[in-house]
Amino acid sequence: MARDLVLSFETSCDETSVAVIENGNKILSNIVATQIKSHQRFGGVVPEVASRHHIEQITGCIEDALRDADVTYDDLTSVAVTYGPGLVGALLIGVTAAKAVAWAHNLPLVPVNHLAGHIYAARLVEPIEFPAMALVVSGGHTELVYMPEEDKFEIIGETRDDAAGEAYDKIGRVLGINYPAGKPVDELAHQGKDTFKFPRAMDSDDNFDFSFSGLKSAFINTVHHADQIHEELSREDLAASFQQAVVDVLADKTQRALKEFPVKQLILAGGVAANKGLRERLTKEIASFKDTKLELVPLSLCGDNAAMIGAAGEMLYRHGARADATLNADPGLEF
Ligand code: KG4
Ligand code: ZN
């Protein structure tokens, strides 16, 4: 079989990434230039700073991706790029670079939804079996996505306010933890106990939606109140209590969704999918769904990266997705 080689681009937030993917599921290279240090002193991603970094990094990332994969432009079959959702100025850099490469080398251009990319990261480990369900949890999204077949994505539940990762980052700031706070809070949580019993919003509601802003406020109020009365609270217990509330709601809603939409595979994807507590909990609970296999995206592919965009891009290409030089960034893109 001829080699299908996708050159893929991801610049929706604070990682500049370019990858080469063979036949949709094999990573030949995956260059990720992170900007986290530049954003840390601001406590979060500054869109203008992100765009400037992407401009500085993108050509070097393309060169490194081709060199690491040991291929040239002439070997490529297509170009895939994230065109939304994300920060408009950041997305535009990847979209512009991808269009330039596609035009200069006469290659088809495939537009990719960032969330489809997170889900299709699973394919880089094992083929996805359909129907499938994905719990996508990241800094910008918390969604339950039902996929009856390969290129069909139906959002059956989503957050009404903050995304799970956003809540981690915001409560992390109150604990004096730098952005992004997810991983350090996860580590603290493993040393503490759920003593605060924070609210589990919408947990018993008859839908698949989420809400994390009440939990975030309860956490912040608890810490501020303790500060006012000069009471020292255990950071470990605070983190454990917060994490337990997040994991409870995510796991409960996912289980309920699986009962209504039986699937062959449940995929846990997105930056927050790296969370140890969430991985452990889903592994335990999905075991009771005999016909559903749990696919945990490997830690190295949970955060934003272009390999996942290439994996989704190859699938979308087969289903006829194409863009031309008029492709624009779509910051609010939905499935
Ligand atoms: O998918 P991602 O890299 O970027 C977006 O598309 O948003 O996700 C980044 C988010 C951040 O909010 C970060 O704090 C969170 O993922 N995160 C975690 C963990 N590792 C990263 N959240 C909880 N536990 C973790 N271990
Ligand atoms: Zn992401």
From TrEMBL:
Residues 26-310 form the Gcp-like domain. Substrate binds at residues 136-140, 169, 182, 186, 275. Belongs to the KAE1 / TsaD family. It is found in: Cytoplasm. It holds the Pfam family TsaD. This is tRNA N6-adenosine threonylcarbamoyltransferase. It catalyses: L-threonylcarbamoyladenylate + adenosine(37) in tRNA = N(6)-L-threonylcarbamoyladenosine(37) in tRNA + AMP + H(+). Its main location: cytoplasm. Its EC number is 2.3.1.234. GO terms for cellular component: cytoplasm. NCBIfam families: gcp_kae1 (TIGR00329), T6A_TsaD_YgjD (TIGR03723). Binds 1 Fe(2+) ion per subunit. One of its GO terms (biological process) is tRNA threonylcarbamoyladenosine modification. InterPro entries: ATPase_NBD, Gcp-like_dom, KAE1/TsaD, Peptidase_M22_CS, TsaD. It comes from the Bacteria. It comes from Lentilactobacillus otakiensis DSM 19908 = JCM 15040. Fe cation binds at residues 114, 118, 304. Keywords: Acyltransferase, Cytoplasm, Iron, Metal-binding, Transferase, tRNA processing. Its cofactor is Fe(2+). The keyword Acyltransferase applies. One of its GO terms (molecular function) is iron ion binding. Required for the formation of a threonylcarbamoyl group on adenosine at position 37 (t(6)A37) in tRNAs that read codons beginning with adenine. Is involved in the transfer of the threonylcarbamoyl moiety of threonylcarbamoyl-AMP (TC-AMP) to the N6 group of A37, together with TsaE and TsaB. TsaD likely plays a direct catalytic role in this reaction.
